[in-house]
Amino acid sequence: MALNLSLVQDINPGADSSFPGGFTPLLGELYFGADNGTVGDELFVFDPLTGEATLAADINPGAGGSNPGGFTVFDGLLYFAAFEATNGRELYSYDPETEAFTRLSDINPDAGDSFPSDLT
Question: Origin, by domain of life (predicted)?
Fold first, then answer.
């Protein structure tokens, strides 16, 4: 059986990979972390109606990226861990209705990481 694979979108155009991962469906869209070569590894969303993947949130502005991961969905929100230079790696939520992201807590204050993981 031959597989018919096709590229949906080249998020980081050229030879470099966008390293997409953590694919998580929510409200008919697909959320994931990826690097477009400009903002670093950030939260992206794929809309199957348009066939486009776009940046959903630039949590750690600049080229460093927030490296979002550990995605889980609860009560219509996307929860995940992400890095931000001021607070380190903490727990965030993303609301697809308002397109807003929120740091939920700074468990280890200041730039110390709390490393939230295994969200279920």
Answer: Bacteria
Cα distance between residue 79 and residue 93, in whole Å:
4
pLDDT in tens, 27-76: 999 999 999 999 999 999 999 999 999 999 999 998 899 999 999 999 99
The amino acid at residue 84 is E
- The strand ranges marked E within the chain are 21-26, 29-35, 41-47, 52-57, 69-74, 77-84, 88-95, 100-105
The strands making up 52-57's β-sheet, listed across from edge to edge, are 21-26, 29-35, 41-47, 52-57
Cα separation of the two ends of the chain: 36
Determine contact, residues 104/90, Cβ cutoff 8 Å: yes
pLDDT higher than threshold 80 for residue 1: no
Matching residue, tokens 């991961």: 69
Domains of the chain: 21-105 (2.40.10)
